[in-house]
Amino acid sequence: MKREIITTKDGSKTLYIPGIYEHYHSNHGALQESMHVFIKSGWEEIRKDEVNVLEIGFGTGLNAIITLIAAKNENKKVNYVGLEAFPVTKEEVDLLKYEDLEGIENVKSEFYKMHSTEWDVPNKIIDSFSLNKVQQKMEDFIPKKEHFDLIYFDAFGPRAQPFMWTDEVLSKMYGALSTNGVFVTYCAKGDVRRSLISLGFEVEKIPGPPGKREMLRARKK
Predict the structure, then answer these.
(1) pTM exceeding 0.85
(2) CA 195 → CA 141, 171, 174, distances in Å?
(3) Are 180 and 217 a contacting pair, CB within 8 Å?
(4) Collapsed DSSP state (helix, strand, coil) of residue 55
């Protein structure tokens, strides 16, 4: 899979796949998109001291490292599972230079540890943050039932990867969430929203990150 490094409008970098015309993060700003969609709109909704997080699309590790920072700031414990079928390379991680971004510069060693640890086993990044990177395709992934408090659904968009947005996949996400668990995604497409509602989610459209008017947040009631 050919990937290119590009610089987004907030100065942070991301990966671009020319073959499917998809960015790993918004070209309006990789860091500010992740902060808005996953921390502000997802993480900040969880009122627990220990949080089980599932990320669909571990990718560059940006969402994981900003979650670690948020957890440290709030003295919370995190058990983080990141699903990724096509891991980024060490060379790509070096070129992204996320360790130089404001806030992340204080957790450089933790960020590199996330990318150097083994796959498919839990690894302690710091005492309060455990990471299990799962290298699987979605069709082979079987998450724990009713286990996760928060799901970051960061798959490529429905145009590029329609198979990631089917009722079957979204039902798997519903089953993985605990009661009152939160599902967040940058996507705001009507058919995705309707699918989530049909599966039993309570869904709301909320303001999106810069460059995107809306996004979706859903709860399992």
Answers:
(1) yes
(2) 20, 9, 11
(3) no
(4) strand
